[in-house]
Specification:
Blueprint: H1 4-17, H2 19-42, H3 47-73, H4 79-100, H5 102-127
């Protein structure tokens, strides 16, 4: 019979042994996948593309959360664990927000474009260009 606690303890140990490699992959993947989801929602791409991107980003975020929990399980409570947990939670929240309230993401994107174009016009006038 399968002993799941034995399997989970081996997976947690594997996660802790290869922490540097796991984090080196998960941090940029998490950020890029979340940014991609936000960009797809903001530019009103098809729903299937948005769902696929959000699913990938959610997998990365949940994997990072589980990885950090393996460190909490052995008593490692340091700044990097909290930073990684915060990053994963923020990315997970942004992905869920983008799927649940896409209109708000579109409005934020439009607001950012408006601010950026104003800033660009002002800096162009100051430099004497245009």
């Amino acid at each position: 019979m399968l002993d799941f606690t034995h399997i989970l303890s081996h997976l947690a140990e594997l996660s802790r042994i290869h922490c540097l490699g796991i984090c080196a992959f998960l941090v940029p993947s998490n950020l890029l996948a979340t940014l991609t989801t936000l960009a797809l929602v903001a530019t009103r791409k098809p729903r299937q593309m948005r769902l696929l991107s959000a699913a990938m980003a959610t997998i990365f975020a949940v994997t990072m959360i589980l990885h950090v929990w393996t460190w909490f399980a052995v008593g490692v409570v340091q700044a990097p664990t909290f930073i990684l947990l915060s990053l994963a939670s923020l990315c997970l929240g942004l992905n869920l927000l983008a799927l649940a309230f896409p209109h708000n993401v579109v409005l934020a994107y439009r607001w950012g474009r408006r601010i950026w174009s104003r800033h660009s016009a002002i800096s162009a006038l100051k430099s004497g260009g245009y």
